[in-house]
Amino acid sequence: MGSRKLQTHIAPSGYKLPSIHAFPPFFCFQPAAKTRVSQDDQWVQLILSYARFRRLFTLTVDDAEKTGSDWEEVLINERINRRLTKQQVRTLLQMLVARGQATYEPPRQDDSVLLYWRKPGEWAEVLHSWAVSTGQLNTIMTFYEIQAPSLPSELSDIPTPLLKRAIDILTKTNRAQIIESGEGDGVRFFAGS
Amino acid sequence: MALRRGAGLAAFERHKADIQSYATLSESLTRQSLDALEVQLDHFRMTLQRFASSHREDIKKDPEFRAQFQQMCISIGVDPLAGPQKGGWWAEMLGMGDWQYELGVQIVDVCVGTRDKNGGMIDMRELLRLLNKLRGIAVLEGKESSTPGAVTEEDVLRSIKTLKPLGAGYEIIHIGSRKMVRSIVKELDMDQAKVLEIAESVGGKVWAELVAEAAGWPVDRAVAALENMLLRDGSCWIDDQDPEASAVYWVISVLEWE
Fold first, then answer.
1. Is residue B28 part of a domain?
2. Residue ranges making up the domain that contains B195
3. Which CATH number fits domain A9-115: 3.40.850.10, 1.10.10.570, 3.30.310.50, 1.10.287.130?
4. What is the ipTM of this complex?
5. What is the count of structural domains for chain B?
6. Strand intervals (E) in chain B
7. Into which family does the record put it (chain B) (predicted)?
8. Mutate to test the interface with A, among B4, B201, B239 (most CBs of A within 10 A)
9. How far is B255 from chain A (nearest CA, A)?
10. Shortest CB distance from B241 goes to which of A20, A28, A135?
11. Residue B159 falls within a domain, yes or no?
12. From CA A171, how far away is CA A165, in angstroms rounded?
């Protein structure tokens, strides 16, 4: 019969799934420690790259075993009839959090994470550059104006907890200030040094 | 929310003006960042050269370190084996002039770099493919000897012979009709060799009963051989969702990856 070639696959979303995704044991956590590390690395890489591709910010345990979820293409491979269980996804979430690639959101539960395909520090820089390049320094902006700007930006649809974290980081270097108001929070950006 | 933009004609005009000023701005930003990037890259290349000459010994001695160093070179577009001099940039930096020895280094790099995936046993064809990819030579499988500049099987065999005195334990092993390069210093036990041969003949996926029947062994012996490969050698992966058996083993070195 000779060897079997594991192929990459273009998913309906246009994302190119790596050949490891067509490898049935990829969906079974490996007992040998070194193999497992390599497997974990590949899952983490796949999840983050897919999230970046589709601009997905959250991954939850309920995304497993569910058709029609945003994550279906990754967590299920119909072509080889393999899927990750909820428990396996929970383990992946733990790993993402332990590696600093995600954070539990909301805190104090382990079913759902906010993914850091960009770290909060990088988001802070993106946010600040955007404020500078669109001439928004020194004026008060609402979070809504950042999340749904008239011209779509890299920050469109950024979840509020992540936006807050990015602003917090800018606050520490005096490049932003939170303005609290009854109608919802706002922020003012400064050029900084 | 009094700050949100209005929807009147003024807002439309402002929107148009916005677009224009973004365009001008983005142009100047792109130019600036390109200039800055070039300066950074030059600087980085210089630093890399300094790093290579001061860590020459480590790079030569430690294959994992060397693999990482090489990866660093590749990620910024420096091919350590390319260059104006014979033997290339690498030779200049590290004083390794001999083409054969350099190929040896690349063989070690590929073998070490893929060890986690294949347990230290790589198919000759896969090795050739990766070596030629590393060297940036496009070559069709099996057409190495007719492609100018491509590394051929004979080159690899000769290089492995050159590596022998170093005690690196690189060896060619014949499994069925295929040649494998083994890079782990370990005796390949007979049972494992048999499993590899069976896996090769069925396309990589095996389970205890199948191995037992093909080899004429009791099932326990097949289980032991497979578990050894799984846990001790890392040369296969287990799958618990296969309908054919509760534990199915995929022998990595028999598979091809796109």
1. no
2. 187-258
3. 1.10.10.570
4. 0.85
5. 1
6. 121-123, 171-175, 178-182, 205-206, 236-239, 248-251, 256-257
7. Belongs to the SNF8 family.
8. B239
9. 5
10. A28
11. no
12. 10
Domain limits, chain A: 9-115, 120-189
User: Which residue in the set B26, B237, B255 is minimally distant from A3, CB to CB?
Assistant: B255
A118 vs A19: CA distance, rounded Å: 25
Instruction: From first to last of the 258 residues of chain B, give the pLDDT tens digit.
Output: 445 555 666 766 777 777 777 777 777 777 777 777 777 767 766 777 777 777 777 766 565 676 677 677 666 666 655 543 444 555 555 544 456 667 887 888 888 888 767 767 788 999 999 998 888 878 888 787 777 778 888 888 878 876 666 656 788 888 777 788 887 655 567 888 899 999 989 989 999 999 999 999 888 888 888 988 898 888 899 999 999 999 999 999 888 888
- Return the structure tokens found at A131: 């404020």
Tallying the residues shown for chain A, one arrives at 193
DSSP string, B178-193: EEEEE-SSS---HHHH
* Chain-chain contact of A34 with B234 (C-beta, under 8 angstroms): yes
Q: Which of A130, A134, A95, A88 is nearest to A113 (CA)?
A: A95
Residue carrying structure tokens 């091919």: B79
CA distances from B74 to B69, B179, B191 (A): 9, 28, 39
CATH number at residue B207: 1.10.10.10
Contact A147, A163 (CB under 8 A): yes
Return all residues near B83 (Cβ < 8 A) that are at least 6 apart. Answer: B89, B90, B91, B92
Q: At B76, which amino acid appears?
A: I
Which chain B residues contact residue A189 at CB under 8 A?
A: none
Sequence-distant (6+) residues with CB within 8 A of B255 are A3, A4, A5, A6, A23, B204
Equal fold, A9-115 vs A120-189: yes
Give, in order, the Cα–Cα distances in Å from B17 to each of A145, A154, B124, B152, B212.
18, 20, 62, 61, 76
The CATH number assigned to the domain with range A120-189 reads 1.10.10.10
Residue type, B44: F
